[in-house]
Amino acid sequence: MSLDCGIVGLPNVGKSTIFSALTAAPAAAENFPFCTIDPNIGIVDLPDERLDFIASVFQPKKKTPASVKFVDIAGLIKGASQGEGLGNQFLANIRETSVIAHVVRCFDNPDIMHIRENANTAAPIDPESDILTINMELALADLETIKKRQEKVTKAIRAMGREEEKKLSAWTSAVAKIRPLLEDGKCARQADLTDDEKAAVQDMFLLTIKPQLYVCNIDEDAIAAGTNNYVDTVRKIAAEENSDVVVICGKFEAELADIKDPAERAEFMDAAGLKESGLANLARSTYHLMGLRTFFTGGADECRAWTIHAGDTAPKAAGVIHTDFEKGFIKAEAYSIDDLRKYGSEAKIKETGKYRIEGRDYVVQDGDVLFFKFNV
Known about the structure:
By secondary structure, the chain is α/β, with parallel strands linked by helices. The chain is 43% helix and 18% strand.
């Protein structure tokens, strides 16, 4: 499964507007259901002021940020799990993503029809009902997946006996925890699973077990406050699910994306009372939700942010740069971005004894600056 974030939600909640602003790609955003049929895919540079700082120290010829992959998936409606709208296709697209950004409409606009159950009937703005609708469709799809697997498990136990039953005990106990949640329209990720149980159900690729964050799409009137009553509702639901919330004004972000001059962008954000784009927060939140972390390399030719998984060791990190680095790994010379801020240069870091030599078992930390020694 690729490392990407699927942007989901009901039709007309602002998914494609947000995606277009994120990626500067021409995703369809017309005011009618199912305008996004094939998933749009965009690679987004990850805003990271740490890379900017390293570049200010080394003054390199090139600066290369980390990136996040987003997939804009068309709107779901009630009945998607049964194939309503273009449900089957879209559920398959969600299944292929590693995390979900669920966009929820948190703005009023009589000119944009809100759709929940019927593509031809307007629904009131109600984030709780919207979230329940999406969650229920994903839960119903997961229940169908479990039902099909249960039939195979039952046959295997009948054929192989007690040994097979013991072998599948982690799967059975995991499903016993997950199924009641799904039947209640809740998410599998809310189940308290052991590591063995998580591993046992991993190959089912359940939709509701994926990490998820909520994206509240507000109007321009709510930018200054950063919230409204609709957002408060979403935050309450997210807290129950242990999910994060990002608040964005899609309309503002789309207008901001059209401004190329940095000074004009800064002025536009300042006028709205923002220090940074809401999309920058979304990109970073998604990156961390995927379990991704960043280390840096610095020099006169290039300063670069590299992506690793949380918990990766130094040889694994070296392999991200080149497979030969991992195969012939000798050691990693390391210091933290915080030390670079404090002391201002590698030379000063060495003088103070903060320049470290790390071996094969070292777990790379987010924000490490590394230089690898290897021998092939």
